[in-house]
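Sat 14:20. Reprocessing the chain from the morning session after the first attempt stalled halfway. Input below, unchanged.
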Amino acid sequence: MSAIPASPELAPRPPGNKVTWLKENLFSSPLNILLTVLVAWLLILAVPAMLDWLFFDADFTSSTAQECRKAEGACWAFVAEKHRLILFGVYPYDEQWRPLLASIILVAALVCSAIRRFWSVWLVAVWAVALVAVAVLMWGGVFGLSYVENARWGGLPVTLILSTFGIAFAFPLGVLLALGRRSRMPAIKSLCVVYIELIRGVPLISLLFMSSVMLPLFLPEGFSIDKLLRAQIAIILFAAAYIAETVRGGLQSIPKGQYEGADSLGLTYWQQTRLIILPQALKVVIPPLVGIFIALFKDTSLVVIIGIFDLTQAAKAAIADAAWRGFSVEAYVFIAVIYFIFCYAISRYSQALERHLDKGYQR
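Finished this time. Tokens:
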């Protein structure tokens, strides 16, 4: 009996070199060639001028604005002079080591939360200690620290506090709203739908105005809520509505067989949601969730409209100094770099998390 001849297979394609990659991606058609030339021309015009303004012609050492204005490039001496006001607002100058240490503690806790080996019950204890330490450092009034009311907080610590607590509380609330919107109980479903659609139908600025101006009018006489806390609540409520819709999309993507398999195992609703359905849904929606978190971190700058000293308001205060007026571009570039560093770190971590969770589907 003769052997069956093996079916012929195509030879593996040799790996392309850089020239091949350029031909396939940048010069594959007349339109691509035109676009490549235009982009290269714009880069040749813009990049050298930007580098000259940012570094080569910039002034880093002048002690006065008059000397700094003589430079042809940026006046980074202004940032060196005003960096403490931009980073910490009107917090007492001699006590600014406290918001600096509080910011470091918050960032360290976030980094620990991003490392999988720390994902245990001890992480809750780490966050409890970190939050107590941040509160003690920022407010003071104990351990020999002078009391500083949160109306004098500002800059980077306020941005980190608003975004960290906003994400931490908005995420579980958004998940509960997503589950409620898919509930079979009409009352709960209706409440969740009304809340989500109402919040998503108005901009964050309107919620901040409502929390700052309208909410105190409905409170009992003699009872008040701090302005920073009101802004924090508005941010949480706003982000939770968007997280709810994103998570709901992930829940709808789960095949019906997953629910049937969970029912066949005799699991209760909360058991199958916690152990089977929700982990798969959250894995699917990691990219849009990260987009919401990044947008939330940047949207904290909107609290400037109600007078809270975040990074943007602190930069405006630094620009208002008559002795250093005229260097707004440098101030906003400085805070833009800070926002970029945090947002880029969040984005890169989400990509790494996606690759880690996708290993079961890779060959």
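The two ends are 37 Å apart (CA to CA).
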